Amino acid sequence: MTLTIPKSRCHCRWRRRKEARPEEIVEAALALFVEKGFSATRMAEVAKQAGISKGTLYLYFDSKEKIFHAVIQHFITPMIDEVETLVKNYQGSTEALIKQLVHGWWGSIWNTPLSGIPKLVISEAGNFPDMARFYMENVVKRVRSLLEQIIQTGVQRGEFRDVDIPTVTRLLMAPIIQINIWAHSLRPYDDPQDGDTYINLHIDLFLQGLKKHGQNT
Amino acid sequence: MTLTIPKSRCHCRWRRRKEARPEEIVEAALALFVEKGFSATRMAEVAKQAGISKGTLYLYFDSKEKIFHAVIQHFITPMIDEVETLVKNYQGSTEALIKQLVHGWWGSIWNTPLSGIPKLVISEAGNFPDMARFYMENVVKRVRSLLEQIIQTGVQRGEFRDVDIPTVTRLLMAPIIQINIWAHSLRPYDDPQDGDTYINLHIDLFLQGLKKHGQNT
DNA sequence: AAAATAACTGACCGGCTGGTCATTTAATCC
DNA sequence: GGATTAAATGACCAGCCGGTCAGTTATTTT
After folding, report:
1. A29-39 b/e with 16+ CB inside 10 Å = b?
2. A191–B contact, CB cutoff 8 A
3. Is the CB of B5 under 7 A from strand D?
């Protein structure tokens, strides 16, 4: 009957695609985890979204939690690697670097499912300590360390006031994390609010508060 | 054998205490919801913590979700009522009012289970829309409205720069909410950080950034 | 082309948990 | 102090879900 069916229009019920599966699974999981949260996401749904059966899921990942772990690792780690090299090679004022970093990060996260990860991690941290530890070590502390170095430099150069570096770093990050968390939790019930306005005013206020008095750029 | 047993040392297996139950249940639920999250908290645990059986729980609340709702209503609403009257009667500089409000709120939330409520609400908002709406209307918007009025006044008096009021209000709240969320999610895996230092620096930076240039108090 | 391999499937299972209700027991009434 | 009321109990149930595995099918090997 059917001779020489092209592979792309195969009538098979399914095809073997060992290499492509893990990434497809991880992408499906991210979308669903962000949409419904970790606990509320059913493995059957992840399978369906990834275009496979539930059994196949377990050929590639031992458990739901392992998928969660893989999601973080797959999407976040490469981004941070990238930012680290950017900072290493940067030439210019501290203020400009902070602006560039925040805007760059913002541009590649906001309006993507990745913006849902902070809320996801925070919501599930209590029930999945391994995941929390991994995120803390591989995301939070690396980002924080970068920002601390930058602000430290700014203080040494006399651009900034001599404040407590770890604390001020957290204060730089807090509103940025916060709006992402908000976007994936209470925003549907809130008045609309423009993200760019928020971020720009945050950087403005933050730098204005941090810079030495009377200094303008 | 045992005649005239004092009520306080009654040998009964249990006692009828219709009036006291709801509050005890709501308090037990708050503690557990904050510790483990809503989904991960078992009704049997809530009952045990409240010193009753699971069946009794359902004499006082129709469902788990209703308890959640009652928790918010019971603990948060009275606090906001209080703050509203405080603000209404306030005489003094805008800056001092903001400081007093933040510190007051901080003092009565931080180091209590109430600090866990924001994380709780955010985590469960997606799965419990009614709860999210209730929290938004009865907590977030009321608090925000108060702060907007205050900052508005500061701008009109010439104390503050002429910034976008709704946005700057969110920026005032964000780090405060954020540290509470953090405390109940990733803090166990993070380096220790003093809350007072954080809040004080936030207010300092925020007001410094918001005040008109060259103005000192 | 048939035998061997391994990717894939989906019905099934065990354990768990929100919610129920027939029964028990404290408190009240007469 | 016996009858009545209603607060409280806890064994039980229905249904859901993460995870399994015996069997199926696409692909490769010989």
Report:
1. bbbbbbeebbb
2. yes
3. no
